[in-house]
Amino acid sequence: MPKRGPGTWKFNSSLLKEVNYVTAFWNAWKLLHFGTPGKKRKILFLLWLFARSNLELEHLSIADGARIRAREQWAEAGETSSSYFLHQEKSRAIKKQFTGIKNAQGAVVQSVSAIIRVWCIFYVQLFTAAVLVPSDQDFFINSLAHSLSPAEANLCDGIVTEAECLKALSKMNSNKSPGVDGLSYEFYSSFWSVLGADLVDVHNNCFSTGCLSFAQQTGLITLLYKKGDKLDTKNWRPISLLCTDYKILAKVLTNRLLLVLPTIVDLEQTCGVPGRFSSENVRVLKDIIDYDNCSNIGAATISLDQEKPFDRVDWNFMLRVLEQVNFDASLRAIFSLFERYEHASGAKLNVKKSHGLLIGSWKDRTDLPVPLNWSNVSITVLGCQIGNEVSVDWDGLIGKFQDQLCLWQGRHLSFRGRALIANVLGLSLFWYHATVFDVPTLVISQINKLLFPFVWGKKREWMARASVTQPLAAGGLGVVDVSRKVTSLRSIWLGRFLTVTNPHPWSSFFDYHVSLVFNDQDVLQLLARDNIPAYRVRKLPPFYASLVRAWIDVKGMKVGQLWVVPRPPLDPLPVAEFSARSAYGLLSKYQHTDHRSLAKFRDWGFSVEWKRVWASLLLWKFVRSVEDTAWLSFHGILPTADRLLHFKMNVNPSCFCGQPETLVHLFTSCPLVRDLLVWFTLQLNRYDPLVILTDGDILFGFSSASSIPLVFSALFGILQHQVWLARNKHRFENIAPCSQASLRKAKSTFRFMVRLQKRHNPVGQFTHEWLADGIVGSITDQGWIHFACDFIM
């Protein structure tokens, strides 16, 4: 079996978060005076070597390294799922490995040289252009109806500027594979003030000389296995890894083209053009199919796929067959046009991947000599299944959603981490289809039955869903409310209908259906009404009914000649500025309900600054288990004995100290926590001898008016977490609590947290807020934290 090669070097972008590395870079840069570009390159190369040989080994953990190599895009801060990452790394490596490959004759070769030769021949043939016909090129070029004005042409012309390059760089995604030089987007972003001007000069020199540098012309081809026979070259997708400086230049040119695309691309092309909405084409196709079926009009919808340039098809024979069987001349003309376009551009129609749908009175037609995959049931267009009496496969999407959640069950995630995964990797599966099609209430209910148990990590939900879906800053987890999200997606359609100068054809179907139900009123007249009867809205097709209901839900109105959405206490928002995001926020405000904890703690006599309390959860963002305990405690839903008894669960009502176990008792008066409070108060009084702890301070942290540094609130949150862990060990493992053991573990967690905070805070702020001006510790000349003895022993 061929031995796997060593791969190529890649700059580890995580080093840019290390203050020591960045400081070393800048110090080296400032101390040296550069006379030539060669000297600059030499210094940069030495710094790269420094990063590779020293800091990578010193700072990267095994788990994080495995995560990077496994190409895992999602990992929570503080997560230590080492075995998971190592397994994923191994799995990914196996997928990329092949022991042999078939040559053009179908024989399997296994030696390294033979494998390389097969791939070279394959890609030479793949990237070789087809022979084109100039006269056919002239035909299509002379048929172009749109052209740029001189002013528009100037937008695409001129030298590259530093502002353009920086804008392009800022829009690029992080954690992407670099090219042969190994330098990432993050590297250029961090050191743009050093490299930016020189890079712009390089780009403009390329334009003036008409030649890119060697690195810019070089790409690394990596192969990704798709499916099927691993010995077949066609089942491996080539990915070209290009240098970041080249991609910055390409992005600059792309941004220029985006400025003029709406001028030269017809309105029917909705994908990839700024200001247009690709789902409109899917919507109008669905409406056409429904209308033709209802009216029994014979028609066909075809989905054509462009084949790779090196494929060959004898279209002359196909066209003769079409003519011989007397098929529609218009359809023959379409295929003749494709043949002519192929001769002009080198593109080909991929017959195997092209599909046709028979609708209306043509559903049972059998004389179909056109070489497509015909169906009278459904076809897939832009990722959506459309057809005759065919609905969205919501069950299939729900199955994928469930599978995605199951993939994360083995990860040690916090509540916030689970909420993020559910939102970004789970619920995102539905949003595209939910944008184009109506989502039944039953489907939303099925999604919620999977969503919320995953977020809680168990079957029981300890808090109302209306609280869980509130933003993080308001004490929720930010879990997306599916029903609210679907309604907010309708705002995209409403905005386009009410503001676009040249409306898309789907708008005509909207007007048509509204006029049938509302006695010849059009959509504009309907939406301007103060009262829209719900019983009539239900008579509209489901999708268009959801548009009208969304307008009602956001309380849209017409003021003079302007369509607006109210948003008290601010001025009304013009529909032209209305988005799905703003609609979701507005709906959340209308449907807001207070957390039950607000009334609960108020009844218990606590006056709480809730906005500050929710913000304080960020103190433990690097120790998510502590954050989870604090979040549950702040909401008063930590599963203490009194709460479990409230849910009719059979548990011992007593704390390990013999007193009734409640949240307030466990964290304020239990002997275990009192022992920890003695030590905590001693440290606090070293900073401020006059401060007196109240139960409110213990449960919710110090008030915003207090001058107490953040570190003390963070420290006590860790102590409370250790009390909770000791309680669980006693209740479930019958291990007696020990204040010294709990304090020792709390100190260890505390030191870890403070070290992480040092990386994310300016020195002055860190010294005051996290070292309490020397009470917790100090920073040495070497930049290390020297903790006070009480925080070590």
Short note summarizing the structure:
The chain has 793 residues and is mainly alpha-helical. The chain is 53% helix and 8% strand. Helix 30 packs across helix 31 (671-687) and helix 31 (671-687) runs antiparallel to helix 33 (710-733).
Which features would summarize this protein structure in a list?
mainly alpha, 793 residues, single chain, three-stranded antiparallel beta sheet, three-stranded mixed beta sheet, 35 helices, RT_dom
Q: What does this entry look like structurally?
A:
The chain is built from 35 helices and 16 strands. It has 793 residues and is mainly α. It has five domains: 117 residues, no CATH class; 97 residues, no CATH class; 87 residues, no CATH class; 106 residues, no CATH class; 158 residues, no CATH class. A three-stranded mixed beta sheet has the order 5-8-9. Strands 12-13-14 form a three-stranded antiparallel beta sheet, with no helix packed on it. Strand 13 and strand 14 form a beta hairpin. Helix 1 runs antiparallel to helix 2. The chain starts with 18 loop residues before the first helix and ends in a 6-residue tail after the last strand. About 8% of the residues have low confidence. It holds the Pfam family zf-RVT. InterPro entries: DNA/RNA_pol_sf, RT_dom, RVT-Znf.
